Amino acid sequence: MVKEERLDMFCYQCSQTARGTGCTVKGVCGKEATVARLQDNLLLATKGMSAYLYHARELGYTDPEIDAFVERAFYSTFTNVNFDPEDFVRLAVEAGEMNLRTMRLLKKAHIEAFGEPEPTQVLTGTVKGKGIIATGHGLKALAALLEQTAGTGINVYTHSELLPAHGYPGLKKYEHLVGNLGRAWFDQKQLFSQYPVAILGTSNCVLLPREEYKERMFTTGPARLPGVQHIEGYDYTPVIEKAKTLPSLDESAGDIVLTTGFSKSVILSLAEKIKQLVERGKIRHFFLVGGCDSPLKRANYYREFVQKLSQDTVVLTLACGKFRINDLALGEIEGIPRLIDLGQCNDSIVAIEIAEALADLFGVGINDLPLTLILSWMEQKAVAILWSLLSLGVKGIYLGPILPAWVNEEILQVLQKNYDLRLIGEPEEDIKAILGG
Ligand code: SF4
Ligand code: SF4
Fold first, then answer.
1. pLDDT value, residue 2
2. 3-class DSSP state for residue 410?
3. Residue 41 vs residues 90, 91, 139: alpha-carbon distances, Å
């Protein structure tokens, strides 16, 4: 992996800062570039974890131990507190462990509120009538919207990371939750212009809106967009009233039907069968292909990678990276789907628990399973998840579409030496390196 260095560090958090503008080579306080970068890494992982914590708290679930870690992580990046690079690596691993705990908390919150997901087919076209598109990750916001729109004749569509909502019994029970429109978060300007409906942004991954749909867009929870009406709390009357004033959509079938909602229980009910298929050589390898998608051209890698896999492989997927591949007809291996959508990015905990259960079943460690992780990262949740995987000792992860920009040679060496972390290369060569032959 070759990385071009431009700026060693950037820190402007205290009055000693170089030239009054920023320490960019080494801190006036003595902070080395690698420490500054590891501090940034820790802050990014903690931000990611905070998003999950927020959604768990929304549903009434909190954990004082996680809160205490968040304080400690922030404090460690304060001026003149901690100059020890090794401690920042330890803190990053601890952030990964705390993020596992956070994802477990959020999963529990989701399941206790809405039931455990079950495989569900989701239409991708439109139904005749007025509509609202909900985007983001907020299941509580979506649940409130569905409850408030019941009986109004307004249809609700999910976008991007709300696709997995369709698998939850407590949400799929609403017949007016009619489908999923668009793909990953970055198509929203085009998508929201295309459909004359009201729009509700429930979390991160909202984009600054175009003028043409600004007045029919709303935000709630942590999302805020200048010029867009924000709704505090969960009373979405303004969204519903706006939807009523807009034209009806025509009936139009989508190009594909998506399947989401493979929970841990569903996969574990198939565990014995999966074990037999592996032992009989029918399933050669599992791949987890997913994560946060980004619009970089390099991210085409993930689709090409899956397209080039042989028929004896199974692909697990999650987060909005799934939209790179979830239209592919991969078929089945004796009743086991070759493409299994586990849910949102926070459902990485489901993938981890499934891998742990399969490792137990096969009597091996996670790293000895026929499983390789091919991950894409975009923002800070993915950083938290990466450290969660590293904290479990998962080795040989392929990461892309680019190496995180705050990783310098020194940090990269630690990631490679301790975790055998790899940057994605060319699909065919990477598949050959993983599967051999
Ligand atoms: S904390 Fe250190 S590196 Fe940061 S601005 Fe102050 S002197 Fe510079
Ligand atoms: S998976 Fe990541 S990039 Fe995608 S919508 Fe969720 S937070 Fe955003």
1. 47
2. helix
3. 12, 10, 28
Whether ligand 1 lies within 6 angstroms of the CB of 23 is answered as yes
Q: How far is the C-alpha of 314 from the C-alpha of 321, rounded, in Å?
A: 16
How far away, in angstroms, is 330 Cα from ligand 2 center?
24
How much distance in Å is there from the Cα of 157 to the middle of ligand 2? 18
What confidence tens digit (pLDDT) does each residue in 158-204 have? 999 999 999 999 999 999 999 999 999 999 999 999 999 999 999 99
- The pTM of the full predicted model, rounded to 2 decimals, is 0.97
Atom of ligand 1 nearest to the CA of 11: 4
Q: Does the C-beta of 33 come closer than 6 Å to ligand 1?
A: no
Question: Which residue, judged by its Cα, is nearest atom 1 of ligand 1?
Answer: 79
44 and 383 Cβ atoms separated by less than 8 Å = yes
SS3 at position 340: strand
Mean pLDDT of the chain: 97
Nearest alpha carbon to residue 113 among 191, 49, 61:
61
Strands 257-260, 120-123: pairing kind: antiparallel
pLDDT in tens, 252-267: 999 999 999 999 999 9
The per-residue b/e assignment along 353-390, b for 16 or more CB within 10 angstroms, e otherwise, is bbbeebbeebeeebeebbbbbbbbbbbbbbbbbbbbbb
Mind listing the pLDDT tens digit for each residue in 102-116?
A: 999 999 999 999 999
Tokens 């039907």 identify what position? 257
